[in-house]
TrEMBL record:
The lineage of its organism: Eukaryota, Viridiplantae, Streptophyta, Embryophyta, Tracheophyta. Its EC number is 2.7.1.40. It is an enzyme of class 2 (transferase). It comes from Hevea brasiliensis. Pathway: Carbohydrate degradation; glycolysis; pyruvate from D-glyceraldehyde 3-phosphate: step 5/5. GO terms for molecular function: ATP binding; kinase activity; magnesium ion binding; potassium ion binding; pyruvate kinase activity. NCBIfam families: pyruv_kin. It holds the Pfam family PK. It catalyses: pyruvate + ATP = phosphoenolpyruvate + ADP + H(+). Gene3D superfamilies: Phosphoenolpyruvate-binding domains (3.20.20.60), PK beta-barrel domain-like (2.40.33.10), Pyruvate kinase, C-terminal domain (3.40.1380.20). This is Pyruvate kinase. Keywords: ATP-binding, Glycolysis, Kinase, Magnesium, Metal-binding, Nucleotide-binding, Pyruvate, Transferase. InterPro entries: Pyr_Knase (IPR001697), Pyrv/PenolPyrv_kinase-like_dom (IPR015813), Pyrv_kinase-like_dom_sf (IPR040442), Pyrv_Knase-like_insert_dom_sf (IPR011037), Pyrv_Knase_brl (IPR015793), Pyrv_Knase_C (IPR015795), Pyrv_Knase_C_sf (IPR036918), Pyrv_Knase_insert_dom_sf (IPR015806). It comes from the Eukaryota.
Length: 501
């Protein structure tokens, strides 16, 4: 109480909007996931994206084939070498998608108040009267009054390519609908039925082929499991990964339906991380409920110490150089809520300004981080940590430290170790280093394996690498205090040191 009034600590501190924006080697503690595609797959563009702040590259197999993505991945590796930056690889599954069968790709104009029949008869020619879908049970799961959404809204954010339909009746394998708005659909068009359970497999045959071939070949760091409905979906994917020798690959459950929301707690326990796919979620939930689910889900992820990534934030930047004011506010609020990362889809996949998008989103995240009242966050999680810079040596602790949202970068020094099998020698822990790129504020440094034989202990050598790196990029300066987490024998040691003047 102060002067008879209760003192309330604000969750963030307002700084002057006229002060200069944050400028740093690390643009933001919040991680940026960029989807690579037609407008972002050249070596030069990827290198610029890495320098702009992209730390995870997402490969969306709803688009194009494995050969195309393999060439993009080769470009990514060359760009990483040029930029001297690590980048994790995320494979995004296709999952339970329901695409309209329109092999011709021709544009189809639908007009408000007209009738349209969605049919399971794929021999039908797609037109303004009939649209075929390769799902035989469609008419059995729909009833009068249900809402169907179809179009490219999930990718473009443009309503003139999106159509809302109301089911009027079903007749055999046909579903007769009323068109609610005028629009033109073309190209890859998805159908989404609001809050209706379609008995589609968790992993499509194409998903299994992609994971067993492309995923195994490239030892992917993360798999984004689209349309995750329950904990069994996650367990099924883990079992499939084990059969394909992808034991280290982490599973990020993508929550984008009401069913996934209902089973969120058990999904969170099993998954390594969460992606909130707000494109589909914004269709499955009433618009006024989406923000509430986001805040609740992020809070639960923060408590569990598991990363949570927010998708669909700056749709307008697919074709525009600047986000809308609402989008910029949305990004900042996601950071203030506690998001670990922001996922960019169409904005970088085929958007006109992939590099600028990453730069702008990174600046918004950084600005939100500067006004966040970290002491309130620490109290929320029942711990207080303060230090100009944190150094992390123990991989087992990186999630715990990230969980408490320190306002400074956390460096993780990872020393690869040789492991032999009957067939070959390989380096271990490099995947763990890249996977740290999914955690807010944690920045891995992949040391040389020769550190182990340099004469000093691995702990001392690793610390020197972290300190030298921090100095070289301007994150550390004389008299800064650092917190060091080290492994000494079977014990964990935490100590505070001050850099010499």
């Amino acid at each position: 109480m102060q002067g008879g009034h209760m003192a309330i600590e604000e969750p963030f501190r307002l700084s002057s909007v006229l002060t200069s924006s944050k400028s740093s080697y690390i643009p933001s503690l919040t991680k940026l996931v960029g989807t690579l595609g037609p407008n972002s797959r050249s070596i030069e563009t990827i290198e610029a994206c890495l320098n702009a702040g992209m730390s995870v590259a997402r490969f969306d197999f709803s688009w194009l084939d494995s050969d195309y993505h393999q060439e993009t991945l080769r470009n990514l590796r060359l760009a990483m070498k040029n930029a001297k930056k690590l980048c994790a690889v995320m494979l995004d599954t296709i999952g339970r998608e329901l695409p309209i069968c329109n092999q011709t790709g021709k544009a189809i104009e639908l007009k408000a108040d007209d009738h349209l029949t969605i049919t399971s008869d794929v021999s039908k020619e797609p037109s303004a009267e009939f649209l075929p879908v390769n799902y035989s049970g469609l008419s059995e799961i729909l009833k009068k009054g249900d809402t169907i959404f179809l179009g490219q809204y999930l990718f473009t954010g443009s309503e003139n390519t999106s159509v809302w339909l109301e089911v009027l009746e079903t007749n055999g394998q046909d579903v007769i609908c009323l068109v609610k708005n005028t629009a033109t659909i073309a190209g890859y068009t998805l159908m989404h039925v609001s809050q209706v359970h379609a008995s589609l497999p968790n992993l499509s045959d194409k998903d299994k082929q992609i994971i067993s071939e492309w995923g195994s070949l490239n030892s992917v760091d993360f798999i984004s499991l689209s349309y995750t409905r329950n904990v069994e979906d996650v367990r099924e994917l883990r079992a499939f990964l084990r059969t394909n020798n992808l034991h280290e690959t982490q599973v990020f459950a993508k929550i984008e339906t009401v069913e996934g929301f209902k089973h969120f707690d058990e999904i969170l326990q099993e998954a390594d991380g969460i992606i909130l796919g707000r494109g589909n979620l914004g269709i499955d939930l009433p618009p006024e409920k989406v923000f509430l689910f986001q805040k609740s889900a992020v809070y639960k992820c923060n408590l569990a110490g598991k990363p949570v990534i927010i998708a669909r934030v700056v749709d307008s930047m697919t074709g525009n150089l600047r986000p809308t004011r609402a989008e910029a506010t949305d990004v900042a609020n996601a950071v203030l809520d506690g998001a670990d990362g922001i996922l960019l889809g169409a904005e970088t996949l085929r958007g006109l300004y992939p590099i600028q998008t990453i730069k702008i989103v990174g600046r918004i995240c950084a600005e939100a981080e500067t006004v966040c009242n970290h002491s309130v966050l620490f109290k929320k999680f029942a711990i207080m940590l303060e230090s100009p810079c944190l150094m992390l040596k123990l991989l087992l602790h990186q999630r715990l430290i990230s969980k408490y949202r320190p306002p400074v970068p956390v460096f993780a020094v990872v020393i690869p170790r040789l492991r032999s099998t009957s067939l070959k020698w390989t380096f271990t822990t490099s995947a763990q280093a890249r996977q740290l790129l999914g955690l807010r504020g944690v920045y891995p440094i992949l040391a040389s394996p020769n550190v182990e034989t340099s004469g000093a202990s691995s702990e001392e050598s690793g610390l020197k690498i972290a300190l030298d790196h921090g100095k070289s990029v301007g994150l550390l300066k004389p008299n800064d205090r650092i917190v060091i987490f080290q492994k000494v024998g079977d014990s964990s040691v935490v100590k505070i040191e001050e850099l010499p003047a």
